[in-house]
Amino acid sequence: AAVGAAPRERLCRQTVEHLYPKVRCRALFGREISLEARHGAYLMPFLDHQVVAEAMTLPVAIKQAGRFEAALLAAIDPVLAAYPSAYGHDFAGPPSTRHRFQEWSSRIRPAWLRQRSYAIQRRMGTMADEHGGLLSPDYLGRVIDLDYPAMRRFFHMEAITDSGLLRRIACLEYLAQRLGSRLR
Prior knowledge:
Blueprint: H1 13-37, H2 49-55, H3 60-63, H4 67-76, H5 78-81, H6 97-108, H7 111-114, H8 117-124, H9 137-140, H10 163-179
């Protein structure tokens, strides 16, 4: 309705590409950009309207698996693009076969499976700590009580297998310890 399409009307590719930066990225990054900009210059080149307009002219194949973003980063700063990324490859060259397969498998996954992906991953085992050991008991124990006395009232700590969730709960525990008796 926001773009003037009827319910269930199939949208053309161009309309969808216009919607992504205007709607999804704004919701995802709007607050972050606002907060960061208060403390100095902050650049989100992939959301710049001129970059988006130019990207609209590129074939879809170039835009899959981060090819366009990698080429843009490599053109701006080749040294930065050559550093390894969290995706398992640098941005100085094309994405790895592994990364392309992960992108493809995500795109072909049906909607009903997408809704259950997190739960399935959790049931498959512990989800890795992507922050280099910051959640290890040795490190975390310096900051909070590892028995989680405040958060244990709200969470089954033994059942937490996701490092991202544990990190958030640890932050809440830290806050609870600092607030003391003011926390109910």
